[in-house]
Every structure is written in structure tokens, then in C-alpha cells.
Amino acid sequence: MKFKHLKLGGLDIETHRRKMVKRDLDKEFKDSDNPLRIVFVCAMWLTGFDVKCLSCLYLDKPLKAHTLMQTIARANRVNEGKSNGLIIDYIGIVDALKKALAEYTANVGNHDGVDPTIDKEKLVSRILELINMVISFFKQKDIYIEDFSDAKINAFDRLSNLNKAANAVCDTVADKQTFTACASELHKLMKYIERDDISVDTRRVYETIAAIHRMLKPKRRDVDTTDLMVTINAIISDHIGMKESLGQTEDAVGSAYITRIDISAINFNILRKEFTRVKHKNLLFNDLGDFIERSLDRLVAANPNRRDYYERYRQIIEEYNSGKDRTNIEKTFEALIQLVKELTEEESRYIREGFTTDDELAIFDLLTRGNPNKADIKKVKATATEMYTKITEAISKMDHWTDKDETTAEIQNLIRDILWRELPESYDEQQIEVCRGDVFEYVYTRFGYMA
């Protein structure tokens, strides 16, 4: 009867009803890679429906109290690559939101139900305070950012001044932390004001601060597919503008050009020589450090047995910060280059060990005990390969397996059964139990995101 009524109005709902019945729409919507990216919700998904990748919520119905708080919370779940949720209000819920927030803070923190929202005047005042703090920070370094925030300054001079300022920020860890904290807070607060809320000159100073901040951020280099030494060379090239120092060639692909570098042709003596030409070495070390840290993050996430590389990197940076005379700077550069060479070799170790993935190597490392003989090594490798294949296959069939006791128990039992069946006889019960715990912790961390 309801369908007939809708058809009279020219609406065909049967197609959508079939989708709701036959497809697992809630699972699809929770998957950030699924093409289902927008849904219209009446009630059921407003509360208690957790979609971590959801970042935008449109409101066009009156809500209040607990329901309003729960609804807004849909867009506030923490997820990788997500900095905040965005609420777009078409109905006007500001007063209801203030009341709900006041009630919430009163219940949670034993307060008197004070409205926690901030007036715009206080927001603008905080923005001006932060900008003045950054201006003072640079004045102490004999750098006056108001001067090169002037619209009349030419582009080359402005870029030169920005590089000088960014290099000064990287002088010490404390300096970088101070500047980054102010610039990050400014970036967040500026989203909530209109252009007319601050003067044109003040906005230009902010844009200068933002430009310096962007220069400190990691460059979007492909740490997954690019050889680490190639990227180190590219970073140094960025800072001295060299093009041919290491035998680079350019191949045309359509209208684009791709730089290709023969790793075997890299001359490290030339690389060291080119390093001496870099003017802003603090900024160079910042870029090198950001890249190496992201490379380490990826390598250690794939195999926790690589944590020693982190400790070596931290020690190199600590020694660099202890004194920045020319000898120490060159020594630090040499140490970083050596570390990256070793990371490059470690990155391809899984191939040399006969595995098809880095994850199999990680499981093999976790299972290896003492100094096994060749026969035991062969058997442990086979165990690691089978473990990876069966675990990933099982997890791929589960829905948010880490959220449920029964699915985590199923994975733990799978790991236990494979270990008892496949590991060499030289492994005793205690060793197998330690291996089971280590492998499960790795799988939970590494594959917890899989649906």
C-alpha cells in the first residue's frame, strides 16, 4: 500500500528497498574505500552507529539534549588522516547545542553546567595573541616577518626570507616545538573566523606564518615505492637546485617528466660534496629527518624487530643537537646517510629470505628463537608463510574483528593451532606460548584495521 502511494507521486522506492535488504549497507558505509559515501538518515544511524571515517554531517531536523550530543559525535570519531569533524547546520541548533553541552559538562565533570563554547571576540583575541607570540619569537632571532609579509615585496625576496625563517625555526628542537605549537593552533582557529574579523595586514602576517609552517611539514614523497637513497638525493637536490650531480635522466611520459636515478651509479663522495653547498642546513636536516622518521614508522609498523633503528636515529639527532659546529654537522650527515643505506638493505631483506611480503618476514623474525639450524629455519619460514596466509584470509571474512571477543579468540586459536602443528620439535611449550602472544600482538596492531 505504501509503495503504491509513492508510485502515484512518481517515486520508485522498491529499488532502494532491495538494496537495503540484499546488501550490507552499514558495513559498506564503514569502509572508507567503498563508493557508498553519503546516506540520508532519519533516526536509526543517528545514535550508536560508529563510522570512524565519517567526517561531515548535515543537520536539517530539530534535535536536543542527549540525541543531539550523540548525533554530533558521529562525525567526531578518531580516524587516520582525519583532523576534525564538520557539522553543517541547516535548522539552527546553536542554542540547543549550547544547552546540551552545558548539561554534558555538568554531568561529566561535576561542574555547574557552564556553556563551554567560546565567544568570537575571545577567539579573535587568542589569534592576535598567537600572531604576536610568533612575531616576538622571530625578533629574538633578528628576523622580522612583518617586513616580508608586505604584498609589495617581490617573490624571490619573499622566498629567500621564508627559507631563512624556516631554517631559524629548525635551529633547536625546542624552537621547532614552540613555533609548531603556535602555528598549529593558529591554523585551527583561523578556520572559525570571517575575513573581516582581522585586518588585511594581520592576515598577511598569518599567511607568512602558515607558509613557514608548511615548509617544515614532511614533503609528500613516496616512501613505499621509492628507494630511500634516491629520495635522500632528491631532498638534497631540492635544497641546492642541482639536476645532474648523480647521473639523473628524464624520461618523457605523456606531457610529464619522471626523474630516474641509477642507484648503482650514486657516488657518495659527490653526495657529500653537494651537501656542503646547502645554505640552510637546519632546514635540510628537518626534511631529511621527517622523511627518515616516516620511513622508520612504516618499516617498524611492518616489523617491530626493527626498533633498534629508531634508537640509532634518536642518538644521531641528539648528538646533532648537542653542538652544531661544522664538524658535527658533517658527522651527522654521514651517520644519517649510513643509516639510510642500512634501511634500504633491510627494506628488501624479505626478498633475500625468500618471502613474498614484509609481513611474512616479520612473523618469521618473531618466531625465530636462538640460533636454529638450517632445517629448523626452513620449517619456521614455512610456518610464517602459512600463518600470514591463513590469518589474513580469516580476518578478511570478519567484520571489525578486533571489536568482538569471539573473533579475537578465533584468531588467537588459529595462531595457536598453526604453531603447535608446524613449528620444529625443538620449541617447547613455553616458547610456543611466547610466540603465540608475540604474533597475536603483531597481527592485532598490523591488521586491526581490516574489516
Short structural description:
This protein is mostly helical and 451 residues long. 60% of the residues lie in helices and 4% in strands.
Helix content: 55-70%
Number of helices: 19
Task: Average the pLDDT over all residues and give the rounded result.
Answer: 78
Rg from Cα:
28 Å
What topology, given as strand order, has the largest sheet? 1-2
What is the first-to-last residue Cα distance? 38 Å
The structural domain count equals 4
Residue runs with pLDDT of under 50 for 5 or more positions = 220-226, 240-266
Shape: flat
Order of helices and strands: HHHEHEHHHHHHEEHHHHHHHHH
The biggest sheet, with number of strands, parallel, antiparallel or mixed sense and barrel status, is: 2 strands, parallel
The tally of strands reads: 4
